[in-house]
């Protein structure tokens, strides 16, 4: 698969799961994954998924722009976008970075950064 | 900035050593990334622009708002063309980029590092923009104790 296709497929897959049932994120994160969420660092699948599942919202409507860059052993994905939570009219701006590593034919999510933009 | 979640990693309890290594890598990463942002990249960028070139090597790629520059010559041109700048850092996050599947012993004290930064930048005297920038710092093969910018990408978001 071309890097662009990998980036698009992963991004779509990740957000489909995130925006529908965050418990299924345990399929994506691994023991080695690290998440920076609004300045706090969560280490490992269990801690990460527990944090994300406990976030106090249900529905997200999202619009994004995506850039990507192949790395020596994988691909980095940069997303800038907006998200509207639980039907609120005002959408929040955010930025997210994923670092995926290619291992035995699969792209694994190792690093994840999420920040809402300060307004 | 670092929250210790060891007690919720039930599946890693057999790998206490692995958690300790990752924890140490995170601490070292925070120290190095803080120095990179606060003492090197942005201060130099704003006051000694061409010194920033020393942070790159020839395989480096620098992307400015969608314009990609690969190699020292193109990066030098890019640095010369951008107007005088003044950056205000609002947030930054950093993580070690561990080798996979196993953390190598030499990586614990000296990991590759991913940094994301948000803030405001003034170019010239008039136009201020919000920006988002990502850096990938990797070990210099000819001098492994030293990191260089393998990749950086800045997007102006306003």
UniProtKB/TrEMBL annotation, chain A:
Domain named NTF2 is located at 6-116
Q: Where does the UniProt entry say this protein principally localizes?
A: cytoplasm
List, alphabetically, the SUPFAM superfamilies matched: NTF2-like
Q: Which InterPro entries match?
A: NTF2, NTF2-like_dom_sf, NTF2_dom, Nuclear_transport_factor_2_euk
**What are the entry keywords?**
Cytoplasm, Nucleus, Protein transport, Transport
Q: Which GO terms describe its biological process?
A: mRNA transport; protein import into nucleus
Annotated Gene Ontology cellular components are: cytoplasm; nuclear envelope
Instruction: Report the subcellular localization.
Output: Cytoplasm; Nucleus
The free-text function statement in the UniProt record for this protein reads: Has a role in nuclear-cytoplasmic transport of proteins and mRNAs.
Q: What is this protein called?
A: NTF2 domain-containing protein
Species of origin reads: Polysphondylium violaceum
Automatic annotation (TrEMBL), chain B:
PROSITE patterns tied to this protein: NTF2_DOMAIN (PS50177)
The NTF2 domain sits at 32-156
What Gene Ontology terms for biological process does this UniProt record contain?
A: nucleocytoplasmic transport
Q: Which Gene3D superfamilies match?
A: 3.10.450.50
- What does UniProt list as this organism's lineage? Eukaryota, Amoebozoa, Evosea, Eumycetozoa, Dictyostelia
Record Pfam families: NTF2 (PF02136)
Q: Which InterPro entries match?
A: NTF2, NTF2-like_dom_sf, NTF2_dom, Nuclear_transport_factor_2_euk
What top-level branch of life does the organism fall under? Eukaryota
Question: In its UniProt entry, what is this protein called?
Answer: NTF2 domain-containing protein
């Amino acid at each position: 698969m071309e890097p662009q296709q990998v980036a698009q497929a992963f991004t779509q897959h990740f957000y489909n799961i995130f925006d529908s049932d965050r418990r299924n994120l345990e399929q994506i994160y691994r023991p080695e994954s690290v998440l920076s969420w609004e300045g706090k660092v969560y280490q490992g699948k269990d801690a990460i998924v527990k944090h994300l599942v406990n976030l106090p919202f249900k529905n997200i409507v999202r619009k994004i722009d995506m850039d990507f860059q192949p790395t020596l052993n994988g691909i980095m994905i940069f997303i800038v976008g907006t998200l509207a939570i639980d039907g609120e009219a005002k959408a929040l701006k955010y930025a997210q970075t994923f670092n995926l590593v290619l291992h035995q034919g699969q792209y694994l999510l190792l690093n994840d950064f999420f920040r809402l933009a300060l307004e | 900035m670092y929250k210790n979640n060891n007690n919720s990693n039930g599946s890693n309890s057999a790998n206490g050593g692995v958690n300790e290594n990752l924890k140490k890598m995170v601490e070292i990463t925070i120290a190095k990334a803080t120095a990179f942002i606060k003492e090197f990249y942005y201060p130099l960028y704003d006051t000694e622009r061409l010194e920033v070139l020393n942070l790159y090597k020839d395989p480096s790629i620098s992307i400015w708002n969608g314009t990609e520059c690969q190699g020292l010559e193109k990066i030098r041109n890019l640095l010369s063309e951008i107007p005088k700048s003044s950056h205000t850092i609002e947030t930054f996050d950093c993580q070690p980029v561990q080798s996979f599947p196993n953390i190598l012993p030499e990586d614990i004290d000296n990991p590759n590092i991913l940094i994301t930064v948000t803030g405001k930048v003034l170019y010239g005297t008039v136009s201020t923009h919000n920006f988002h920038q990502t850096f990938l710092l990797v070990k210099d093969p000819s001098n492994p104790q030293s990191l260089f910018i393998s990749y950086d990408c800045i997007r102006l978001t306003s």
